[in-house]
Design a protein that fits this description.
10 helices; S-adenosyl-L-methionine; 11 strands; alpha/beta; restriction system; DNA_methylase_N4/N6; binds S-adenosylmethionine; Rossmann fold; 9-stranded mixed beta sheet
């Protein structure tokens, strides 16, 4: 597996399953990721399209059972490498497939619990703008049974690798007062939004990012700030354009990322190096 060592972390190009198997047990404090959505985007074809080799994307054929196994295998390994008390946080939403809305987040909770992850929180990420126009159906047919609300939200599901409070490996065990002080969370706007499980964060605008499905860096920042301390290692097993890795760098965390597509790895790496080199001495 090819790796790119950067000053705050590393990006591996390849299947995260292979990469995770190489990582030491109990070595990661926090995972934040958004998995490839079941049949929603074929990333290889997207890369081909960007390179001008094809003019269309096709949905990759994969059965739901195979997709379930794909996720379980990877989140099982993520469980092994996560430190006791650490979290994996997953951005996910129902997907449309063959005229059905597949309740992926709700299935995922069961799969994660079977692995050993403890379900902690369901946060709604609300986007100010809907991409689809489903609600138009009722406008054309204003009768019961024609209600298809436009989708403006995704889920942020929080899972923990539980540990005893007196387990010395627990990520919360030996935080010093100095560390707590340094990582104190700004509560100025806490009652405004952060205290609730609906987070309104603007999605990435078209053209702002070369990846077809990035989540906002502000979303990653909020997760990282709430669930890790400075110098902890934050991991994104489906790193895409590197939004989690950039957010980790912004917040002085170390990062580990995995991504299969060379194009996205290069893009993430270049952005990380570029922003790192723009940091002034005052930032350090
Ligand atoms: C939903 S996207 C993640 C986007 C990312 N959160 C961002 O903000 O740019 C999922 C990514 O997983 C990558 N991927 C798919 N299968 C993978 C695997 N087995 N290991 C690592 N990455 C994979 C895809 O190429 C895609 O870039």
């Amino acid at each position: 597996m090819q790796d790119y060592e950067l000053s705050n972390g590393v990006i591996y190009r390849g299947d995260c399953l292979d990469g995770l198997r190489e990582l030491a047990e109990n070595s990661i404090t926090l995972g934040f990721t958004s998995p490839p959505y079941f049949n929603a985007v074929n990333y290889e074809e997207h890369v081909e399209k960007v390179q001008g080799n094809t003019d269309h994307w096709e949905r990759e054929e994969m059965s739901y059972d195979d997709y379930q196994d794909f996720l379980i295998d990877r989140f099982e390994e993520a469980f092994r490498v996560t430190k006791p008390g650490g979290h994996t946080i997953i951005n996910i939403s129902p997907v449309h497939w063959q005229d059905e809305r597949v309740p992926l987040p709700f299935h995922l909770v069961g799969w994660m619990e079977d692995i050993g992850w403890k379900f902690k929180e369901d946060i709604i990420w609300e986007k100010p703008v809907a991409k689809d126009r489903r609600s138009g159906v009722l406008l054309q047919n204003p009768y019961p049974g024609y209600y298809y609300p436009s989708v403006v939200a995704e889920y942020i599901l929080v899972f923990q690798k539980e540990a005893d409070n007196n387990d010395k490996n627990n990520i919360y065990w030996d935080r010093t007062e100095e560390e707590k002080e340094k990582n104190q969370i700004d509560l100025d706007d806490y009652q405004g939004e952060k205290s609730k499980n609906v987070w309104k964060i603007r999605q990435v605008a078209p053209g702002e990012n070369e990846h077809p499905a990035p989540f906002p860096r502000d979303l990653a920042k909020r997760v990282i700030e709430l669930y890790s301390y400075q110098d902890d290692t934050v991991m994104d097993i489906f790193a895409g354009s590197g939004q989690t890795l950039l957010a980790a760098q912004d917040l002085d965390r170390e990062f580990t990322g995995f991504e299969t597509q060379q194009e996205y790895v290069e893009y993430a790496k270049d952005r990380i190096i570029d922003e790192n080199s723009q940091m002034t001495l005052e930032d350090i």
